[in-house]
Design a protein that fits this description.
binds S-adenosyl-L-homocysteine, globular, binds FE3-S4 cluster, about 35% helix, five-stranded parallel β-sheet, alpha/beta, binds iron/sulfur cluster
């Protein structure tokens, strides 16, 4: 057991800051006839989406009503991302757009949290150049909101302190955006230090939640009607390290899949070096484990993988894919690729293209390398000029689109079980859902979000499957 991790049972729900905020909200409601609104804008990955749901849960518990419209808010929070330069620029420009709100509504509280503001220099910049920002803190801010908000309501100074704490808050209320699908955090932080990546610096060291807390949460979700659970962590395969001697991720997956009910379990993200035969075996034995594996490759060149500190070779990676497919022939495999890592030669890049042809991914998230200050890769020789990275990126997308179209066309004529998400966002007469392998499927028949439907596939492109409901 790692005793330095504090598992905090209750966030400060009844501490004096929370009581002070609740009193303020009550007085506001009495005066204005409506509850004060809070708005949380999310940037970045599922981890941040999950954290935002916790922040909304805490805000509701404090007496705020939740809105998506920043213009109505009394509390406006930005949950930020730092993974690429573009992500940070975008966040800063969006924060800038809301400067005027503070002028018309001085009582508005604006806070910045998440990965970008975990960095001291970014907080310093917010403090200096964004005088309308009231506070900045880091990721997993939900448990700290009562004191941060109370302190501003009480007229105290703006706050830009953040120290990463080795804490896991349990019992934080969560306001989920969907009733039928849910994220469940199983661990926080990352110990891998891939040389390009800022995440270990902004989200701290790996720490796992207790299995009982995770399983209880899943059981409650299933009882409330959730059909699709995603177990979340930066590297789910290190689940339990430092906490249990003989209980690891495959055990957790098996336990969650053993819960009663009609649901599926997926997980994000797996590091290839830690994705074991045992995990593939457990997946193949558990009917409720979704047939989808996201296994980020990053590069098809073993030389570049070495420079990235990924600690596997391309051949080793391919072997794992083959093992997985031998056990689960229909499994959907997706990945992340970085183009233009420092020192990437034409030959290295060709190896990435070859990797795509060999593995035949169903879908890829591809990124142009973005130097992050403080990471080893940002200091490496051989930074790749933009024009070259852009050209390689286009070639990668072109090849992947061809592969994905081919893979999706193989579904034509087949019946796929789909969890309906509701109306399509782009076409009002069409409904959308996800298959077990997490492919997007469109169909014309009206079905409710959260309902399972069998869809016979008639058409496919690189991005989705299209068909009609069987019944
Ligand atoms: N823990 C997860 C998510 C990491 S961030 C994982 O390991 O897969 C998601 C993806 O962003 C990474 O897989 C990587 O492909 C990409 N990424 C991270 N840092 C990057 C950088 N500096 N430039 C470009 N892409 C980056
Ligand atoms: Fe970043 Fe690597 Fe950790 Fe993923 S495993 S969060 S890419 S350091
Ligand atoms: Fe996610 Fe961005 Fe942080 S990708 S972990 S929100 S840096």
């Amino acid at each position: 057991m790692n005793e330095s991790i504090k598992h905090i049972k209750e966030y400060e729900a009844n501490g004096s800051p929370a009581l002070a905020v609740r009193r303020w909200c009550r007085e506001f409601t009495d005066r204005e006839g409506i509850s004060p609104y809070a708005c949380v804008l999310t940037f970045g990955c599922q981890q941040n989406e999950a954290d935002s749901e916790k922040m909304r849960g805490v805000l509701c518990d404090l007496g705020y009503a939740i809105t998506d419209d920043p213009n109505m808010a009394q509390v406006l929070l930005f949950n930020t991302c730092a993974v690429r330069d573009h992500a940070e620029k975008k966040v800063l420009s969006v924060i800038g757009q809301y400067k005027h709100l503070k002028a018309v509504r001085p009582s508005l509280i604006i806070g910045v949290c998440g990965c970008m503001s975990a960095q001291a220099e970014r907080r310093e910049k917010l403090k200096r150049s964004y005088p309308y920002v009231d506070f900045a803190t880091g990721p997993a801010a939900a448990g700290k909101l009562p004191s941060l908000i109370a302190s501003r309501l009480g007229g105290k100074k703006r706050s830009f302190d953040y120290t990463e704490e080795n804490e896991i808050f349990e019992g934080v209320p969560v306001k989920r955006s969907e009733d039928f699908r849910a994220w469940v955090n199983i661990m926080h932080g990352c110990n891998n230090f891939c040389t390009y990546c800022i995440v270990p610096y902004v989200r701290g060291r790996e720490r796992s939640r207790r299995k009982e807390d995770i399983i209880d949460e899943c059981r409650e979700l299933i009882a409330s009607g959730v059909k699709d659970i995603t177990l979340l962590g930066q590297n789910v395969n290190s689940y339990g390290r430092g906490l249990y001697e003989d209980y690891a991720f495959p055990d957790l997956l098996r336990d969650v899949c053993s819960l009663e009910g009609d649901f599926k379990v997926r997980f994000m993200t797996s590091h290839p070096k830690d994705a074991t035969d045992e995990l593939f075996k457990v997946m193949s034995e558990c009917e409720k484990a979704a047939r989808h594996f996201h296994l980020p490759l990053q590069s098809g060149s073993t030389r570049i993988l070495g420079l990235m500190n990924r600690r596997y070779t391309f051949d080793g990676y391919l072997e794992k894919i083959e093992k997985m497919r031998a056990l689960m022939p229909d499994i959907t495999i997706t990945s992340d690729i970085i183009v233009g890592f420092p020192g990437e030669t034409e030959e290295d890049f060709e190896q990435t293209l070859e990797a795509l042809r060999l593995v035949k991914y169903d879908m890829l998230y591809s990124f142009i390398y973005s130097p992050r200050k403080g990471t080893p890769a940002a200091e490496m020789d051989g930074q790749i000029p933009k024009e070259i990275s852009n050209a390689r990126f286009s070639r990668l997308l072109e090849l992947q689109n061809e592969i994905a179209r081919e893979k999706n066309e193989a579904y034509i004529g087949k019946v796929v079980r789909v969890l309906c998400e509701g109306e399509s966002k782009t076409d009002a007469d069409t409904y959308a859902g996800r298959s077990d392998g997490y492919k997007t499927v469109f169909f014309p028949e009206r079905r409710d979000a959260g309902e399972y439907v069998d869809v016979r596939i008639e058409r496919a492109d690189a991005f989705a499957l299209y068909g009609r409901c069987e019944k």
